Amino acid sequence: MNVLQKYLDQNKITRYQVAKKTGIANTTLANAVKDTKPLSGQTVKVISAVAQALDKTPGQVLDDLIALDKKGVHPLN
Hints:
Largest sheet: none
Oligomer: single chain
């Protein structure tokens, strides 16, 4: 599973909810959570939108994603 999708699941928020709260395109989010998309390939736009939707800073979200990635949540797992 993609680390961003796992993060969204853990925070009980859907891609649709992020799109509605922030105005980011749902297709952009769909591409960001593909199993083949590594954390290093995520954009500032996506991380910022997730942060805004969760009322966190982009830095907090990135730190959380890095920690989650280090736990071994990698694409195709």
